[in-house]
C-alpha cells in the first residue's frame, strides 16, 4: 500500500510505516477473510484499516502500530458486520457480537503447537503434503466458528497476541477472551476429530 496524506510524514517515518503495512497486509487479509467470508469485502476492510492507521496514527512511534492496527482492523470488521446487518445482506447470530464476561472454561490450548505445524525439519514430501492438507482442514473449520470465537482464536494463535492484548483489541474482558478461545478450541478439536485428525 502506498501512503498518501495531507500531512506528509518524514521520509524515514513513511518508510517505516510502509514496511509495517507490507508486513501485516497478508495476515490481516487472511484474518479478515475468515471473519467476513468474502475476499472482496476483506480487502476493502483491510485497506480501510490501513488508511485509518496512516491518517490517525502515522506519526505515533512504530512500536505502537501493531496494537493500534489490530484494534482498528477489529473495529472496521465489526463496522462491516453492522452495515451488513442493517442492510439485511447477511444473517448473523446476535450472540456472536456479545462481549459479556465469561468464565474460563479451560486452560489455554495452542492448537497449532499441538499439531507441530512449524516443525518441518527433516520433513518428507508425503509429510509436507499431509501437513498442508491438515492446515487446509483447520482453516476450513476456523472459518465455520462463530465470529467472536473466530476473532479470539485468530488473534491468540494466528497473530500470537497474549490474552491481555486480545482483550484490548476485542473490547472485552480477559475472561471473555479465554472463554471464546476455549470454546473455539473445543469446537475445532471436535470437528477435526470427525475428520480423523487427533490432537
Detail the topology: elements first, then pairings.
Blueprint: H1 11-36, H2 39-57, H3 65-86, H4 111-115, H5 125-142, H6 147-158, H7 163-170, H8 174-194
Helix pairs in contact: 1-2, 1-3, 1-6, 2-3, 3-7, 5-8, 6-7, 6-8, 7-8
Description:
Helix content is 66%, strand content 0%. With 199 residues, the protein is an all-alpha fold. Helix 1 runs antiparallel to helix 2 (39-57). The longest helix has 26 residues, at 11-36. The relative contact order is 0.12.
How much helical structure, as a percent, in the residues? 55-70%
Q: Please report the total strand number as a whole number.
A: 0
The count of helical stretches stands at 8
Give the distance, in angstroms, between the N- and C-terminal Cα atoms: 39 Å
Structural class comes to mainly alpha
**Principal-axis shape:** globular
Proportion of strand residues: under 5%
Quote the average pLDDT.
Answer: 75
Order of helices and strands: HHHHHHHH
Low-confidence stretches: 88-107, 114-124
> Over all CA atoms, what is the radius of gyration?
18 Å
The largest β sheet comes out as: none
